[in-house]
Amino acid sequence: MSYHEPVLAAESIEWLFHADSKGEGTYIDATFGGGGHSKLILQRLNPEGALFAFDQDADVLEHLPDDPRFTFIHHNFRYMREFMEFYGVEQVDGILADLGVSSHQLDTAERGFSWRFEAALDMRMSQDRKQTAADVLNTYSPEALQQVFSRYGELINSRSLAQHLAKAREKKPFKTIGDLLKEAEPFVRGHRPKYLAKLFQALRIEVNEEMEVLGDFLRQSLNLLAPGGRLVVIAYHSVEDRLVKRFLKTGNPEGEVIKDEYGKILRPFKLLSRKPLLPSAEEIRRNPRARSAKMRGGIVLRKNSPEQ
What we know:
Layout: H1 9-16, E1 26-29, H2 36-44, E2 50-54, E3 70-73, H3 80-86, E4 92-98, H4 103-107, H5 133-139, H6 142-153, H7 158-171, H8 177-184, H9 192-207, H10 210-224, E5 225-235, H11 238-250, E6 266-271, H12 281-286, E7 294-306
Parallel strand pairs: 1-2, 1-4, 2-3, 4-5
Antiparallel strand pairs: 5-7, 6-7
Helix pairs in contact: 1-2, 6-7, 6-9, 10-11
């Protein structure tokens, strides 16, 4: 099995480069992962092009391309703007972010991302982070746990599950995936794998502050992209997708409509598609983990351009 099969690979690269591109310019792959998207970007770049890629996961270091046009930055992409300043890059022509967890991360038992394996309740994207999934389960109040399960997992019984887990930890603190499954099993509703995947997704998002990181990244992207530059984001969670949708529409993750002094709505992006692009049935058959992907993108107009 490959480290990670990139989702919407050809489609994302087509959106990232304008139709008459000759491969010039500077691009960012904000989520390097297994390097699938980066490899395709490098194939499109000419010798003068440049690609910067971010990833905080140490496991990806074994998959970096040996290419003079490629610069890898071993940090979270929420620090994208600072590192671009460090490298003397004022503007870029395209930014791609695939927000999904890589197949390698899901299939590596000791990382604790999947309910399918017995391991410590870790779920950290970077081992530099202090808080683990076990810490969340053992220290959050029942109300805070309910909010995590409801907002990030959309679990219909988030309240009863949170209250039960808070009581269970008094007898035995959570340490392993098995500890969590034992207490969560009676609360499973509907399709078991789907329910547990949502539960583990909610914990992973909380542990890694993924929504806060995404908001920081989006704000920086608008400042970094040159007029005509393109932002392409592949999301896998409804909260992520709504945040990206609001940002492309208004220029801020909160979705606040901004108007000029004449009352005209300021639109920073021309949408590449009004609706998100979804994987084909064939791609989902080949790579079932693509089934929840939604891709959105936009072309930067003049910074805060009035709506035409």
